[in-house]
């Protein structure tokens, strides 16, 4: 190893030495603690399910002091159920298949054992975490950096939509943890000189059922071929594939299945409803529900990118602060939209399924399934954006006459019938005219944006980037206000546009 590499590693090595020196006295206590913990595990599970604080501590799981401090620094008072089950097994060197409801602390369940192993054996390119979406990759990186802040852990996020050269420079600095989407990681393996995964000790697949799906088959095969067989592999998800061949592709060795929920389920504090409506009045009912539950923070799921933008434009035309998020946006704009919602500068995030998996936004109060998901497992992930880590939340699914079969599949998966969300039909229909006008305005806005994009195509990179107006805020209403004779069409939208410019 070169002297520069050893200098770079000194922060982790120093932390490792300090942990080794300072932790010797507590090892007996940890063994005793974990022993007593297992004796009354059932009682603890019950208290955890009821939401009360669990008696088992981070030390009881076998974690070293510096990581226990990091957990408490993040206000993680006690380990969650999946963490209690998975961390001791991971520290003992087992491959793990972890299945737990969304929002139950799965990231901590794989991040903490990896960080402890890194302290025991400091090296660069130590672990790779694969995720299906870019936003989830950034979130996992934040958690690793927060947990590893005291030991100087370096992380690198490798996702599509960002500059390849910049990412290659980050990889050349040899981070400890690489968090990546499969496609972009393969790009770097094939094109970035000097980059390889031959020394990797840990591979994690977060949202593993999605990564092992056909969508990523080619990329995952390429990644597995260039990784050492002598490694630990963790698969985590809220819904896991049952197809053995898919799991075999992950090259697990004698895996232990950690399943803290025996069937696909949602957390107990999540109130779930359905709303059976005529398809042509879907937008009217949406606005009514937003008014009824005003003051809450909403995530609205749509099936297509176009519907996401159109719904956001319609709500902004009604004076509601909504921001869209979908796969056709540039990565920088996707992150900007997400940050606006996370910082609570916007109360409504309208998204396709790219935001359905793994994202942890604590303040989400209500999830609305405006378009019902095609796959019933996606429902579990969508509604898991609320009622996270012991908090309460609501989820409402809009069911039209065309969605009955898809909805019945969801109820079958959940194993229960959901109650209906009550609406006064007269109150809903009173909004019909206003919503209809806002929808017409939104369609005109959307057509204008698409025409502007088309007209700027071929004008170079800057022109293409300037045309990327997915946020819709700076254009909504403002342009109409500037055009004579269009004040009526853009009144409320203009107000919304003005507000967005101040923010």
Automatic annotation (TrEMBL):
Sequence ranges of Acidic residues compositional bias = 1-13
Just give the chief location class.
nucleus
Its Enzyme Commission number(s) read 3.6.4.13
One Gene Ontology term from the biological process aspect of the record: regulation of gene expression
GO terms (molecular function) for this protein are:
ATP binding; hydrolase activity; RNA binding; RNA helicase activity
GO terms for cellular component: cytosol; nucleolus
Chemical reaction(s) catalysed: ATP + H2O = ADP + phosphate + H(+)
Q: What UniProt keywords are attached to this protein's entry?
A: ATP-binding, Helicase, Hydrolase, Nucleotide-binding, Nucleus, RNA-binding
Which InterPro entries does the entry link to? DDX47/Rrp3_DEADc (IPR044765), DEAD/DEAH_box_helicase_dom (IPR011545), DEAD_box_RNA_helicase (IPR050079), Helicase_ATP-bd (IPR014001), Helicase_C-like (IPR001650), P-loop_NTPase (IPR027417), RNA-helicase_DEAD-box_CS (IPR000629), RNA_helicase_DEAD_Q_motif (IPR014014)
Q: Where is this region: Disordered?
A: 1-54, 446-503
Q: Where is the DEAD-box RNA helicase Q domain?
A: 56-84
Domain Helicase C-terminal, chain residue ranges per copy: 269-429
Where in the cell does this protein reside?
Nucleus
Which leading EC class covers this enzyme? hydrolase
One Pfam family cited in the UniProt record for this chain: DEAD
What top-level branch of life does the organism fall under?
Answer: Eukaryota
The keyword Nucleus appears for this protein: yes
Q: Where is the Helicase ATP-binding domain?
A: 87-258
Give the family this protein belongs to, as stated in its UniProt record. Answer: Belongs to the DEAD box helicase family. DDX47/RRP3 subfamily.
Name the chain's protein: RNA helicase
Q: Which organism is it from?
A: Anopheles stephensi
Q: What is the lineage of its organism?
A: Eukaryota, Metazoa, Ecdysozoa, Arthropoda, Hexapoda
């Amino acid at each position: 190893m070169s002297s520069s590499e050893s200098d770079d590693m000194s922060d982790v090595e120093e932390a490792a030495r300090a942990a080794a020196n300072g932790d010797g006295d507590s090892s007996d206590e940890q063994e005793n603690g974990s022993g007593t913990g297992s004796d009354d595990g059932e009682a603890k599970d019950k208290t955890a399910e009821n939401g009360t604080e669990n008696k088992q501590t981070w030390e009881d799981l076998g974690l070293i002091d510096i990581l226990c401090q990091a957990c408490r620094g993040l206000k993680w008072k006690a380990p969650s159920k999946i963490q209690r089950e998975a961390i001791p097994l991971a520290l003992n060197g087992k491959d793990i298949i972890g299945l737990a409801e969304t929002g139950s602390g799965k990231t901590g369940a794989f991040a903490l054992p990896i960080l402890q192993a890194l302290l025991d054996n400091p090296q660069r390119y130590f672990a790779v975490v694969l995720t299906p979406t870019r936003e989830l990759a950034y979130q996992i990186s934040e958690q690793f950096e927060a947990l590893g802040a005291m030991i100087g852990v370096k992380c690198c996020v490798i996702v599509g939509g960002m500059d390849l050269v910049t990412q290659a420079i980050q990889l050349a600095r040899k981070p400890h943890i690489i968090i990546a989407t499969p496609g972009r990681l393969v790009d770097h393996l094939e094109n970035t000189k000097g980059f390889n995964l031959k020394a990797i000790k840990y591979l994690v697949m977060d949202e593993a059922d999605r990564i092992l799906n056909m969508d990523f088959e080619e990329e995952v095969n390429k990644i597995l071929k260039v990784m050492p067989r002598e490694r630990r592999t963790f698969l985590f998800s809220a819904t896991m594939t049952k197809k053995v061949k898919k799991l075999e592709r992950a090259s697990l060795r004698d895996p232990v299945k950690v399943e803290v929920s025996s069937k696909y389920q949602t957390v107990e504090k999540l109130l779930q409803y359905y709303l059976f409506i005529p398809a042509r009045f879907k937008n009217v009912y949406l606005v009514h529900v937003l008014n009824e539950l005003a003051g809450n923070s909403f995530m609205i799921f749509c099936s297509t990118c176009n519907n996401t933008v159109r719904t956001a434009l319609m709500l902004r035309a009604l004076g509601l602060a909504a921001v869209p998020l979908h796969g056709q946006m540039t990565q920088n704009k996707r992150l900007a939209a997400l940050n606006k919602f996370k910082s609570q500068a916007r109360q409504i995030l309208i998204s396709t399924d790219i935001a359905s998996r793994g994202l942890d936004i604590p303040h989400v109060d209500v999830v609305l399934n405006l378009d019902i998901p095609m796959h019933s497992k996606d429902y579990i992930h969508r509604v898991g954006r609320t009622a996270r880590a012991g908090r309460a939340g609501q989820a409402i699914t809009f069911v039209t006459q065309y969605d009955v079969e898809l909805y019945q599949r969801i109820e079958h998966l959940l194993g229960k019938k959901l109650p209906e969300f009550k609406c006064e039909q007269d109150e809903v229909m009173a909004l019909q005219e206003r919503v209809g006008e806002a929808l017409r305005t939104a369609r005109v806005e959307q057509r204008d944006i698409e025409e502007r994009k088309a007209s700027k195509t071929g004008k170079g990179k800057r022109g293409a980037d300037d045309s990327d107006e997915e946020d819709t805020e700076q254009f909504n209403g403002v342009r109409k206000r500037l055009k004579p004779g269009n004040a009526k069409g853009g009144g409320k939208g203009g107000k919304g546009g003005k507000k967005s410019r101040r923010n």
